[in-house]
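ugh ok fine here u go
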Amino acid sequence: MRKDALQNRERLLQAARQLFADRGLDVSLEEIARTAGVSIGTLYNRFPTRDTLVEAVFADRVATVAELAEQALATADAWEGFVAFLTGVCELQAADLGYNDLAARTTATDGDRGHALMREILNRAQRSGDLRPDITLADMAFVIWAMAATIRATHKVAPGAWRRHLALTLDGLRTAAAQPLPTPPIPTAQIRAAMREC
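structure:
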């Protein structure tokens, strides 16, 4: 890429990062281009779709989540690793409304590296006896979804309220607190359909 093209790309990424972080993923591409000081055509030349822009903006967050997962797996106590992972993900969500929206719209059931790491975090916590045995990876999508909704609703008035919600959720995930669940887990296809609706 030419120097000016690289500069335009970086300006677009910076503008998108800031606007997404402040307001979420629904910011218009036109506003991103205007904030970056380039035309909408330049934006589309660098990022042909909204998804390609989102992927570029949040590549570092995705990498950070993978690092959090690896740290959780390296933690000697499986429950502490599980808690640290969920807390770390929620901290990323609370710091960036765009990433919060992205976390709510994607699942850990997509067959990628994150899927495998999350499954191992769950399996370890269940093998240790701390995480209730009937929790599935699909259930974790709803934990993240619920946390995303709490963060979105409270970020202006009570930015740390999600920590209380997470603590309550974690208590409900512990084996010692387990009661029989009223329905089976939702299949992956239905989770994806539900997330497309939000």
